[in-house]
Design brief:
By secondary structure, the chain is of the alpha/beta class. It is about 30% helix and about 25% strand. Bound molecules: iron/sulfur cluster and magnesium ion. This is Peptide ABC transporter ATPase.
Length: about 325
């Protein structure tokens, strides 16, 4: 499988005005702090984590809706982090985003057909009948009727509005869609309809998805591989079933312990984490998870672990799995 997107050591820091923690003065929040991952052609890559972990910021930075502080974002070999505005505009045709709240992202004064058509105008499709044809095609594919196209967004339910959002995102025939909590605002009964639609559209159009969510059941439904984020860092990346059945990082273990295993023999005990997520403006030293980790060792308080491949297609950022510890385990056997 070809790699469509490769994110390398991405950082996004936001300036803040004079926050003070103890005797430290803080002038930036490290929302994304050295995130690396790859997304393969045709797959759905899930990014999960609690709110404030940097998952949405990562998604927006890939699209340059937020400017990256540093790092590389290769899309089909082009470094998105370095392109100019004109080049970025062209790339936006290939990478689209779908937001959590479709209502706030749809202009209330525009008719649905104009909302869906707008990207085509932005991308210079001059022929009006061609645009209209494309709008009708895509509307049909997302399950909107011709009659609905002349209505306004407020006349639709949340699920239907997300269909409109998908139609608008798909009309430029993108290769990659970044979906940021696309069903989180919807009733559970509607969620699966929209998720199934996204699956069908993926097949139909050969789409690649980055699916951002805090909801593990939603992620499980759709994703092929999953990356877990904690305090601006990617702490574990694995194929979906590996992640759900045998998570390695202590944070992933806790996060996923609330979710039943798909494997009947691999029973999980619910792990309740101590403490709250620390502020990203003043993250703990060493491994930023260490104050909450029941496996914390001395090295964890001073040295940050890096993401390393420990099994086939399974990366984890934790000192429990570094070479030093592997040797120790071996000695004790
Ligand atoms: Fe826990 Fe140490 Fe691993 Fe961090 S590096 S998750 S503190 S064991
Ligand atoms: Mg978010």
């Amino acid at each position: 499988q070809n790699v469509l997107l490769k994110v390398e050591n991405l950082q996004k820091h936001f300036p803040v005005k004079g926050g003070i923690f103890g005797n430290k003065t803080i002038n930036q929040v490290k929302a994304v702090e050295g995130v690396s991952f790859e997304v393969k052609q045709g797959e759905t890559f899930g990014i999960v984590g609690e709110s404030g972990c940097g998952k949405s910021t990562t998604g927006r930075t890939i699209l340059r809706l937020l400017e990256p502080t540093s790092g590389n974002i290769y899309f089909q070999g082009v470094n998105i982090a370095e392109v100019n505005k004109t080049e970025m505009r062209k790339l936006r045709k290939d990478i689209q985003i779908v937001f959590q709240d479709p209502f706030s992202s749809l202009n209330p004064r525009m008719r649905v057909k104009d909302i869906i058509e707008e990207p085509l105008i932005n991308f210079d499709v001059k022929d009006r009948s061609e645009r209209e044809k494309r709008v009708h095609e895509i509307a049909e594919q997302v399950g909107l009727t011709v009659d609905q196209l002349s209505r306004f967004p407020h006349e639709f339910s949340g699920g239907q509005r997300q269909r409109i959002g998908l139609a608008r995102a798909l009309i430029t025939k993108p290769k990659l869609i970044i979906a940021d909590e696309p069903v989180s605002a919807l009733d559970v009964s509607i969620q699966s309809q929209v998720l199934n639609l996204m699956k069908d559209l993926q097949k139909e159009f050969g789409l690649t998805y980055i699916f951002i969510s805090h909801d593990l059941s939603v992620v499980k439904h759709l994703c092929d591989r999953i990356g877990v984020m904690y305090l601006g860092k990617m702490v574990e990346v694995a194929e979906k079933n590996q992640m759900y059945d045998e998570p390695l990082h202590p944070y992933s273990k806790a996060l996923l312990s609330a979710h039943p295993s798909s494997h009947p023999l691999k029973k999980k005990n619910r792990i309740i984490l101590k403490g709250d997520v620390p502020s990203p403006s003043n993250p703990p030293s060493g491994c930023t998870f260490h104050p909450r980790c029941s496996s914390c060792m001395d090295i964890c308080k001073t040295e940050a672990p890096s993401l390393q491949t420990v099994r086939d297609q399974h990366d984890v950022s934790c000192h429990l799995y570094t070479e030093v510890n592997k040797d120790q385990e071996y000695l004790y056997e």
